[in-house]
Specification:
Structural class: alpha+beta
Number of strands: 14
Bound molecules: flavin-adenine dinucleotide
Largest sheet: 5 strands, antiparallel
Distance between the termini: 64 Å
Number of helices: 12
CATH topology of the largest domain: Enolase-like, domain 1
């Protein structure tokens, strides 16, 4: 299928792109990797009158660490995130989650910013960014504002981004030491969108008890199991605790039924995945703790 006619703009700088978007307002759309927008245009589900191509904006293509925080330019390709040594070392949850996004060819073109703004219900990056308590830097010609991931995702395929605003950067806080991570999902085939996905982070105290847990599920918007997260503090990381917490967290979900899976199936999968995520995150936190002890002795 072919898209409806549109005018194409190729700005070379961020201010140029922001001015074009401000000039055209609601009829314009930014184009990033095109892996979601172009199919939607071809199916006539999106009909922008103007397409503002962000691919010439080199200033939005970077990965760096500042004040311990990971800063990701919105036009950074998903594959760059997946392959970055900095990410593997400091934010391994992002690497693990990104590997589930479509196929290599999709990740080569698809951008971090595009995935977050598209906010597809079963997308991996919104869930991982919510677990990591990342924030989004949004800019228009007048200035910029920063929004936490938990407030950025408003509904299925809807964010708090306003007309004329661009997501320019994602900031991911430093992960505390003695933290383990896990991202797990179930899909019909490798590379398909998740039927259910869960991200988790678990931090241990030096005495081996749990300091903090973050547990987030795929849904219309990423669902953070905040109530359940509170119950871990000071507890020993044990299978029975993880099983009960996973059951409780999954009970709060209200997933949709569609042609791929029923809501009941998704809830059942959520329970199993949440337990596995907690167990794997705890095991990794334990390894991180032991490495720390060994290193400090040597
Ligand atoms: C076959 C296939 C399988 C896929 N499987 C998965 C999967 O398993 N998991 C998954 O998460 N995704 C999957 N995707 C989607 C893929 O991850 C896309 O790359 C992503 O959703 C959109 O990123 P993009 O850079 O391609 O954005 P685009 O498609 O260019 O844009 C998406 C939307 O975001 C807006 N936008 C883009 N960048 C910005 C910005 N900086 N500021 C403001 N607005 C912006 C655009 O206007 C558009 O509305 C799949 C895609 C395909 C084709």
């Amino acid at each position: 299928m072919k898209p409806a006619p549109f005018d194409y703009y190729e700005p070379k700088t961020l201010p140029e792109a922001l001015n074009l978007l401000a000039q055209f307002g609601e009829t314009a759309k930014p184009l990033a990797g095109g892996q979601s927008l172009v199919p939607m245009m071809n199916m006539r589900l999106a009909r922008p009158a103007q397409l503002v191509d962000l691919n010439g904006l080199r200033e939005l293509n970077y990965l760096k660490v500042e004040n311990g925080e990971l800063r990701i330019g919105a036009m950074t390709r998903q594959r760059v995130l997946e392959r970055s040594a900095i990410v593997a070392e400091g934010w391994p949850l992002l690497r693990e989650a990104t590997r589930y996004v479509g196929h290599v060819q999709i990740r080569n073109r698809g951008t971090v910013g595009g995935s977050l703004v598209h906010a597809y219900p079963s997308a991996e990056l919104p869930v991982a960014m919510t677990a990591l308590e990342a924030s989004m830097v949004l800019r228009n010609p007048q200035g910029e504002r920063t929004v936490l991931a938990g407030e950025f995702f408003v509904d299925a395929m809807t964010t708090s981004l306003k007309t004329g605003e661009l997501l320019v950067e994602v900031r991911v806080p430093q992960v505390p030491s003695r933290t383990g991570w896990s991202f797990q999902e179930v899909s019909r085939r490798h590379g398909d969108f998740a039927l259910m996905g869960v991200a988790g982070l678990l931090t241990l105290r030096s005495d081996g008890t749990i300091e903090r847990v973050r547990l987030v599920f795929c849904g219309a918007t990423p669902h953070r199991a905040s109530k359940v997260e509170q119950q871990f503090m000071g507890q020993r990381p044990e299978s029975a605790l993880f099983r009960d917490a996973a059951n409780l967290a999954a009970a709060d979900l209200e997933p949709d039924s569609d042609i791929h899976a029923s809501a009941e199936y998704r809830k059942e999968v959520a329970k199993v995945l949440a337990r596995r995520v907690l167990e794997q995150a705890a095991a990794r936190a334990l390894v991180a703790t032991q490495i720390k002890i060994t290193t400090s002795r040597s």
